[in-house]
Design goal:
This protein is an alpha+beta fold. Helix content is 61%, strand content 13%. A hairpin with a 2-residue loop joins strand 3 and strand 4.
Length: 759
């Protein structure tokens, strides 16, 4: 929610939800803006660019405080803060508190702090922004602030060469990050589903324990309606107390994870997030609402059974067993229906919603089918068993399935999710590491401060390096969205290392000649491009696509052209960054020499290993939230097994007492209880592996493509599965030890009392 608020402000500041007027060549002369205003067009100018800050670049937006709509001003709706800030402090910048810290560098105007400004963005008057960005007399775009008057002339008549870009064609930060929020929402629903299973099982077992109390109250004349209302009130009080505690714990989890969430959104999506956390009333309302809703859903079937069964039915265990069999039939039908939904989503659906529907249907179908599969397997094993003790053990295990099925379903969901997401993350890590080895082929990477310094550096390196590879780029609009256009020289580094997915013949020769370009996978999927197609670039220019390359982790489109074509078509390109090829053993010495010779700091000279380490660190932080949710669901599943076993332990004395009376010691019985739990967990894990692999395939081949625009190869990691399986068995064993210990410590007199009852 905090991330949403941050980039909703950014989207509003950028005008992403409004139509804009752009020029295919890039910038627009101020005279065009003046002509449109005089002709009656409701437009406001925007100067957009990047300035160097402390710790990285900051986006600078130059706006006109008089014509900018209030919701686009730094002060947000109402606009007073932003407008007065410009009037009271001309020539200054306005930014959020954390962004202001990065702007306290030499050469920049003083900063006015605005609590409601979008993060990662600095606002300035148009004239100030033009001076800082070197765009005197030019603007980046114009935002339409209202409907065009009918009497106003057409755009072509006023200033030829301009075009209107509708909102659905411009960059929308909210839409870009929908995949991230859908991912978190899917995990939230998974945790919610696991929680429902636990609460449903706990309520069912608790009422099973309280059958004598219910029987007595009904026999004494308490109406069924009154008893039901009292039970509902009891559940409501418990859920409110639990929900309040959950909100407090959730706030703590959010405070721990929000730095990594901010890093994910900045690194993987290119979206600025402030990284602060505010406890909002909506959180309390949503948390309590989820707790009450979840408890109501989990308790509905049990409360319904209590309300509908006759007076003395709770005294008859067969009535509850019959209800369990009916529930098993409903679960089997539900599993079949969800499987059909999954098949329909895979074959007919498109987009992220269809992908997550496929994911959810597969998981829930597997969970609902688990008790039926376990029952069939236990029935087969019972038939195979030859010794009386083994036959009784497996038959008794099958009898306990209704009480343990919900906990085992929760375990299946947790294990399958861990296997699926773990396979996705590990496949991504393996692919990403190999891709970095290809992309980061140069031994050193250098950023200079000025063009004069860059020229001197190239001359100095001419006799000291094997090759100097310029890393020059311009920002432009391709296929209606912002993109990066890079120029490369014709060198063996690119021919031997660049990760091409598709390519036409003579791809590098055609690129060097300037007649063709390379595009990244994201841009190719977005525009349906393939080798041989043409793509329109700023200029205007429509070269042929000669190849498509992988570009993992980049949210934007990217185009690579020959360096000569870049400098001739975009002569204002910044020429300050270079890759340097030297022998690996010479790289450290050359890095120190560069710093001493040209006064460069450590951030301006990076070696290959440091860049890889930084990239992998960002990668690991990206999946911190996913790992935390994985651990959470697995821990909850283990807790579910513990609560189920504890509840069942007191109810199982009538089944265990005859076995004890026939000669089995309490020690043997407790050992069998542990073996039973571990055996069920082992079978559940075995079933979770194929379900988790199907989940991984959906994540990699469906959801990842829809969300990010690239497809990842799927790799298998059996060692990770074995480690997870061992952890699951350990959790099941730990959950079974306490009930087994209680059974072992049960007094013989208590076991003998079983035979004194009518059962």
């Amino acid at each position: 929610a905090e991330a949403r608020i941050s980039y909703d402000r950014a989207a509003a500041a950028l005008g992403s939800d409004r139509s804009v007027i752009r020029a295919p060549t890039g910038t627009i002369p101020e005279t065009a803006y003046v002509a449109l205003r005089r002709a009656g067009w409701p437009v406001t100018p925007v100067v957009d660019g990047w300035i160097a800050g402390d710790g990285g670049r900051v986006r600078l937006l130059g706006i006109d405080p008089l014509s900018t709509p209030p919701d686009l001003a730094p002060g947000g709706p109402g606009g007073a803060e932003g407008f007065l800030g410009f009037i009271a402090a001309p020539g200054r910048l306005i930014s959020a508190p954390r962004t202001a810290v990065r702007l306290r560098v030499d050469g920049l105007p003083p900063v006015v702090i605005s609590e409601t400004a979008a993060p990662g963005i600095a606002f300035a008057d148009v004239g100030v922004a033009q001076r800082l960005l070197g765009l005197e007399g030019q603007i980046s775009r114009m935002i339409l602030t209202g409907e065009r008057p009918k009497a106003a002339p057409d755009l072509e008549e006023i200033y030829p060469g301009l075009e209107v870009v509708l909102p659905d064609q411009s960059a929308d930060l909210g839409r870009l990050t929908d995949s991230f929020h859908l991912n978190l929402t899917a995990f939230g629903f998974l945790s919610f589903s696991v929680g429902l299973l636990i609460v449903h099982g706990a309520i069912g077992l608790a009422f099973e324990q309280r059958r004598p109390v219910l029987r007595t109250l009904r026999a004494l004349g308490v109406p069924s309606r009154t008893l039901t209302l009292l039970v509902v009130a009891e559940l409501g009080l418990l859920s409110i107390a639990s929900g309040a505690l959950g909100i407090v714990l959730g706030y703590g989890v959010a405070a721990l994870l929000i730095p990594d969430v901010a890093a994910t959104l900045r690194g993987l999506y290119g979206v600025p997030v402030e990284g602060s956390l505010v406890l909002r009333p909506l959180w309390w309302a949503a948390g309590l609402g989820i707790a009450l809703l979840g408890t109501g859903v989990a308790a509905a079937s049990t409360v319904w059974k209590i309300a509908r069964l006759p007076v003395l039915a709770p005294a008859r265990p067969r009535a509850w067993a019959q209800a369990d069999r009916n529930l098993a039939r409903i679960q089997a039908l539900g599993a079949a229906l969800l499987a059909l939904i999954a098949i329909a989503s895979a074959t007919l659906g498109e987009g992220l919603i269809a992908g997550f529907t496929l994911l959810g249907a597969l998981l829930l179908a597997g969970a609902l089918a688990l008790p039926l599969i376990l029952s069939v397997l236990l029935g087969i094993v019972t038939q195979i068993a030859r010794r009386p003790l083994a036959e009784w053990f497996w038959a008794d295990t099958r009898q306990q399935l209704p009480g343990l099925s919900l906990a085992l379903m929760a375990l299946l969901l947790a294990l399958a999710t861990n296997i699926g997401v773990g396979t996705m993350v590990s496949s991504f890590r393996l692919t990403f590491t190999g891709w970095l080895d290809q992309r980061l082929a140069s031994e050193l990477y250098v950023s200079t401060d000025s063009q004069d310094q860059a020229d001197r550096l190239q001359a100095w390196l001419a006799s000291r390096a094997d090759a100097v590879l310029p890393i020059w780029s311009v920002d432009g609009e391709v296929l209606g969205r912002p993109a990066e256009i890079y120029g490369v020289i014709d060198h063996a580094t690119y021919r031997e290392n660049w990760p091409l997915l598709e390519a036409s013949p003579e791809v590098w020769n055609r690129l060097a000649s300037g007649e063709a370009v390379l595009v990244n996978e994201q841009l190719a999927r977005r525009g349906g491009l393939a080798p041989g197609d043409t793509v329109r670039l700023p200029g205007p220019w429509s070269p042929e696509v000669a190849g498509i390359y992988s570009d993992y982790g980049n949210p934007a489109g990217q185009v690579i052209i020959g360096l000569d074509a870049l400098t001739s078509r975009y002569p204002d390109v910044e020429r300050l960054r270079f890759g340097i090829r030297v022998a690996p053993e010479e790289a450290p010495g050359l890095a120190r020499a560069l710093q001493e010779e040209f006064g460069l700091n450590e951030n301006q000279v990076s070696d290959q290993a440091a860049l890889k380490a930084l990239s992998l660190d960002i990668f690991e932080r990206t999946f911190t939230v996913t790992a935390a949710l994985n651990v959470l669901t697995l821990a909850i599943a283990g807790f579910a097994i513990l609560t189920s076993l504890l509840t069942l332990s007191a109810m199982r004395l009538p089944q265990l007492a005859p076995a004890w009376a026939l000669g089995l010691s309490r020690r043997d019985l407790s050992r069998l209880e542990v073996i039973r739990t571990v055996a069920l967990a082992a079978v559940t894990f075995a079933l979770a592996v194929p379900l988790g692999l199907v989940l991984a395939w959906v994540l990699l081949s469906v959801i990842n493509v829809e969300a990010f625009g690239w497809r990842l190869p799927m790799h298998l990691f059996p060692t990770d599965w074995l480690r997870l399986g061992g952890l699951a068995l350990l959790a099941a064993c730990a959950a079974a030890l306490w009930p087994a210990y209680k059974l072992r410590r049960t007094a013989p007199s208590q076991l003998l009392q079983v035979f004194t009852h009518e059962r």
